[in-house]
Amino acid sequence: MPSPIISFRSEWDLLNNESMSDFAIFTDQLTKTYGRARGIQNVDLRVDVGDVFGFLGPNGAGKTTTIRLLLDHIRPTSGRASILGLDCRRDSVAIHRLIGYLPSEFALWDDLTGAQTLEYFANLRSLADRSFMLDLAKRFDLDLSRRFREYSRGNKQKVGIIQAFMHRPKLLILDEPTSGLDPFNQQEFHRLVTEARAASATIFLSSHLFGEVERVCTRVGIVRAGELVRVAQLAELVTERARTLELTFNAAVAPSVFADLANIQNVQAHGNVIVLTLRGELGPTLQRASGYGLTNVVTQEPTLEEAFMAYYTPEP
Amino acid sequence: MNSIFAKSFRDQRRGAVLLGLGLAFMLAVTIIGYVVQFGATPAERAIGLQALLPIMESVRLLAAEPLDITTIGGFVTWRLFNLIPLFTGIFAIGVATRLTRGEEEARISEMVVVAASQSRTQILLQLWLGLVTVLAVVGALMGFGLWLSARPFEGFAWNQIGLAVTNIMWHALMWGSLAMVFAQVLSRRRHAVAVTLILMVVLWFVYNLSVTLPQLHNLGAFTPFTAYAANRPLTADFVFKPFPYLLAPALSVLFVGVAAVLYSRRDLGIGMLPAPRNRAALTHSDAFWLGSLFRKTLRDTLVSALSWGVGMGLFGALVVGLSNTVIETMQNLFPPDSPLGHLFGGSLSPNAFLGLALFSFLPVLMAVYAITSVARWLSEETSGRLEMVMSTPHARTELLAQHLLVLGVGMGLSVCVTGVFVFGTAARFGVALDYGYVLRGLVATWPLAGLVLTGGAAMGAWFKRPGAVIPILAALVGGAFLINLLSELLMLPQVLLWTSIFYVYGRPMNDAWSAVGTLVMLALAALFGVVAAAGFEQRDLQRG
Lengths: 316, 544
Prior knowledge:
The complex is a heterodimer of chains A (about 325) and B (about 550).
Chain A: H1 9-15, E1 23-34, E2 37-48, E3 52-56, H2 63-70, E4 78-83, E5 86-87, H3 92-98, E6 99-102, H4 114-124, H5 131-139, H6 153-165, E7 171-175, H7 183-198, E8 202-206, H8 210-216, E9 219-224, E10 227-233, H9 234-239, E11 243-249, E12 264-270, E13 273-278, H10 283-290, E14 294-300, H11 304-309
Parallel strand pairs in A: 3-8, 3-9, 6-7, 7-8
Antiparallel strand pairs in A: 1-2, 1-4, 4-5, 9-10, 11-13, 11-14, 12-13
Chain B: H1 4-38, H2 42-58, H3 72-79, H4 84-105, H5 108-116, H6 120-150, H7 161-185, H8 189-212, H9 224-230, H10 242-265, H11 284-289, H12 293-333, H13 339-343, H14 350-357, H15 362-382, H16 385-389, H17 396-429, H18 435-443, H19 445-462, H20 469-485, H21 494-497, H22 501-505, H23 516-538
């Protein structure tokens, strides 16, 4: 079904106080339904230019649907999307010129060698200089003389990564990019992302690997059951999660001392030590503790995985 | 689903039922048409058929030896039982290679080998039993259709149906088993299919030439079709010859034994023949053929276009090569001043003979080629390759237009190659063809094929599931063929006739032929092209 909404740039701008050209990726109430099957619902996404944005969610949450809508491979049921100020529906060809895309699963021509495959994509993109392409093949230790069907899963992934990066796009949309790569090549990929970011490229990275997202991303979006439930700076997402605080005093302190603090839970006393669960800012708690002879503080920081899982498991 | 055998059968059951029903339908149409045209009793038929016997003798290329053609069994044996082993053989080759090398290419077999806890020999035998069962279904449906169609008429040796059907199916099994051997040796399914298929078709041609041309008679002994033709169970004077009958099943067992030995000893995932070494550097040829979407698509299309052209060209060359012999026979049978000579007068020219023997089949072959072209285009999307190409800066309409254009060019190339063979043979053998008529007959197949191509592309663009397009398109083309075939026999209304592309194609070797139909098909092809573009522009791409 074609989108029932026709894009008019003036209307589009009036509808949004924010200018979509300020963002690398901008979606407004983006929705895709597949009959009874779930797609995505009312996704409002803003990715700043130069961001390395991690897009997290379990299988079937709607990550790939969102990406395919951005690429104009599928059409929205309602809502709109833009990339680098260009309408995803109307300006899809211009957008494709600016982006590099790596799908989570892809097929290429079995009988073409790696060199032939990359040559073809270079021609499709009118890429004049092949030096960076060849340099990438060398960095990933990819044997370009082998046919695509002869490649292992990891080597096929390398072909996909190279074709996405080789024209130095302004925006990289990468769906599970390190799937099948060995740790050495994962490191090489992370270096490549860092270089792309240093060259002012925006990276939109969908992944299940929290370590990878923590390592390379600056902002994170969490999608659950087709809805974007949270977008935050990586640090913000982590620090807002409940963390365990172990406060040691020079004498025993009653738990009731912390009872009136709003962001404190489960306060327990063990001799001179108070163990509590803290959510949010650390400052007020430390300020209160310092008045009772605080001698040591130990915190157990939550991981991104714990932060992510909190959106999928009910709080006790 | 509780064994490899059951799963193999399950995966192929639809194709088996479709082929079985198709063959049953073909037999029913032939039998009913035969009775309507030549009479219900052997005595009635003898009057009409005896005069045609010499022509049947001379046109041996596509039909069996005309024995006992005044009976239904004899006529069916002559008309169809030389062709049906080819159809069932092609089917068996497809199934056998899909079950073996096809599953290996899809990396399914590695998981099956690990999960099944059986030896590879046992696994291969189960796959082979799956093939046997699939062919049994085809044979049962075909036999039932034959029995149902011939039962009302007297003189049909219906108690020999089992023997006739098994004779066909043993040969299909033999080709399938041989394909399993090639599937072990070669690393690609399509290569195994191509080698077995070419071998089968060449041997079939050799057999038919050996029974047509006395000087090639001895060559027939080297083809399994001689053993197949030794038993004609539906003819009246049939005497069972056990050795030729059992040759095909014996060879099947031998082939599957060889395949099992090879399968148990070789590395999974690769063939036994060493793969050719790949080039590390790109050549000038690569730079050219991979230079653009158009050239890459053309590169992928050229081999099949040339293959179809050569195949159709060889068929055309054989028809042209035989035309002088056939016409001479007919002139001897029906002198121009005789009543039948007046009746058959129009058939006594090479043009008229080509109209009957070549241009009745060429549009069908081109339509089939167009269906394969549609399948190729749809596979770009269903395989997931299109998603990668669509993320490059090319508009959807541009992509579709370039693919359709290239496929159209490919079909044009096939027609040109066919023309070269036809005209070359005519010049070599001194056949007095009217080149203008032949040329328009050849050229007019292009809009017909183009219509099938763009029609299929339009369906693919608007259908949610492109997988449904090919069966529907094939059914439509098959229906159009039957409408044209049965138009006079069933006195079908004119409105219905105009729905058949083969009727619209007309008879280009005839003076009454008009270009209007060709132009209408051309216009419709263009219209469907636009419909396809509109549909492709709005559709959600499949991920593959």
